[in-house]
Structures are given as structure tokens and as C-alpha cells.
Design a protein that fits this description.
With 108 residues, the chain is an alpha+beta fold. It has two helices and four strands. The protein has helices spanning 29-42, 83-92; strands spanning 6-11, 49-54, 66-69, 73-75. The protein has a four-stranded mixed sheet, with helices on one face. Strand 1 (6-11), helix 1 (29-42) and strand 2 (49-54) form a beta-alpha-beta unit. The termini are far apart.
Length: 108
């Protein structure tokens, strides 16, 4: 397996209903994960990018959360409809999708 250019982590954390922090899962994270897999598969990009589901990566209130390394860019409020743009702009063109970028305070 070649070393990937970027590694995408999709939070799929679940919590009980009504939990004060909420969870990415309840905000559509499984659909986001499926959209990433579909995009990487349909474009035959497995040799360039790795997609991994993860537990909590921090900002539950802004979920669904996606973290891309080595860039260290966190996206919040991501929906399945946003995945094409993230793949096109960030993964393929190296441009941060500013409208989805989580606020700097998430790194608190």
C-alpha cells in the first residue's frame, strides 16, 4: 500500500439521546462516512487517500466532524451533500473549504 497523501477521519461517535454534548452520529455522520467511501471508490482514489471512521474528535456541538491530516483541518456541520466539495477542493486541489471549516476555538 502506498503512503496516502491525506488521511480523512470521520467522527461517528454515538451518545444516548438527550446527552448534553450530542453526537456526530445523530447529526448524520454515518451518511457522511458512506458518501466519502462512495466518492473514493467511484473515483478510484484508494491509492491516494485513506478514509477512517473514528470516535469523538472534539467539537460535538458542530458535528458531523471531519478531520483531515496531515493538514490539520477540522470541518464541522458536514453533511453527505458536502462530501463532493471536500473531495474536489480539499483532497484533489489542496484548497480548504472555508464555509465548512470549524472555528479555531475547537482546538482550544
Amino acid at each position: 500500500m502506498p503512503k496516502p497523501e491525506k488521511h480523512v477521519f470521520v467522527c461517528i461517535q454515538t451518545r444516548p439521546p438527550g446527552h448534553p454534548r450530542g453526537s456526530c452520529f445523530e447529526k448524520g455522520a454515518s451518511q457522511v462516512m458512506e458518501a466519502f467511501i462512495q466518492q473514493i471508490q467511484s473515483r478510484n482514489l484508494f491509492d491516494r487517500f485513506v478514509i477512517t471512521n473514528s470516535g469523538c474528535i472534539g467539537p460535538c456541538s458542530t458535528g458531523s466532524s471531519v478531520l483531515i491530516y496531515p493538514d490539520g483541518v477540522m470541518y464541522g456541520g458536514v453533511t453527505a451533500a458536502d462530501v463532493d466539495e471536500i473531495v474536489d477542493k480539499h483532497l484533489l486541489e489542496g484548497e480548504v473549504v472555508e464555509r465548512l471549516k470549524a472555528p479555531a476555538e475547537v482546538w482550544g
